[in-house]
Amino acid sequence: TPGLADLAVAAGKQYIGQMIDTTEMQNSAYMVIASNVHMFNQVTPGNKMKWDATEPSRNLFTFGAADNIVNWALSGGRQMRGHTLVWHSQLPSWVSNSNFNNGTLVSVLQNHVTTLVKHFSGKVKTWDVTNEIFNEDGTWRQSVFYKTIGEYFVDIAFRAAAAADPSVGLAANDYNLDNNNSKIAAYIALVKRLKARGVKITQVGSQAHLISGQTPSFTFMVSALNALVATGVDVAITELDIRIQLPITSAKLDQQKKDYNTAVRACMAVPRCVGVTIAGYSDKYSWVPGTFPGYGAALPFDENYKAKPAFYGIVDAL
Ligand code: XIL
């Protein structure tokens, strides 16, 4: 099987990457492909850099698991994405239920962002500074950060990250950015406001958690990415998976091949799309069955680490 990363680099992209967590890193059969830098030359940690994992109680930071992922990734010559600094989910209750006032939550936020970005400085290439801050209709998600601080929580997080590591890339990451919709419009407007206020943002990440047979067309995906790029940022596809309604049939696997091809081709067609990260690589480990009952088989390799038609859909796109 050809190496996806090698093909992507030859075609002018930075990477094809994988999300990975410490659970699957214990599985040596899984790690044969996961460790092949010709296949995946970029890594995003699935869970171990999230707030609940890194600051489970106030100002007590735990980096052991994340360090293991980062050291493995970098020692094999892979690029690292940080995921994620500010998110309403997997947020410990000492933050989400705190009733901190504005000043206290601002300092908690600054301390968290600064400590993580400094700890991984020189190792993480780009951070998902914010994750999922808008609703589908483009209104603000009512997180503890937004409710307590207002929109400026975004400025505060991006400014703290930039100060902690002036050379790191700074992204806002979200799902449902695959199409022209109200959420895309909210990001375009936000990037413009941030830039007008002198806040550095270098990228918008499109998670791309898609449903096979219902993915937007190539034209729509490209125009969504281009609309973001027009604000002066790079884009990346950050958590690509394309779930199938079970049971699996060969017709559904062929449809999934087309859908993977479309999504990866969309990134290829946009010069400022830096790369594609898949949300794992094998159906053995995927968040999909646990989160979307009745769906599964969302990744390009099957549970026995055998390439599915979807894998060749990616190859054809590169
Ligand atoms: C998921 C992980 O894969 C799961 O293991 C965890 O239980 C929940 O979070 N968007 C994101 C990711 O940005 O961090 C989420 O990852 C999936 C949705």
The CATH class turns out to be Alpha Beta
Q: Helix-strand pattern, N to C?
A: HEHHEHHEHHEHHEHEEHEHEHEH
Mean residue pLDDT: 98
SS content category: alpha/beta
According to CATH, the homologous superfamily is Glycosidases
Helix residue percentage: 40-55%
* Proportion of residues in extended strands: 15-25%
Helical stretch tally: 14
Terminal Cα separation, in Å?
14 Å
Could you tell me the radius of gyration in angstroms?
19 Å
List the strand order in the largest sheet: 1-2-3-4-5-6-8-9
Bound heterogens, unique: (3S,4R)-3-hydroxy-2-oxopiperidin-4-yl beta-D-xylopyranoside
The major sheet is characterized as:
8 strands, parallel, barrel
**How many domains would you count in the coordinates?**
1
Oligomerization category of the chains in this entry: single chain
Looking at the structure, the CATH topology is TIM Barrel
From the spread of the alpha carbons, the general shape counts as globular
Secondary structure: number of strands: 10
Reported CATH architecture: Alpha-Beta Barrel
Q: Which blocks of ≥5 consecutive residues have pLDDT under 50?
A: none
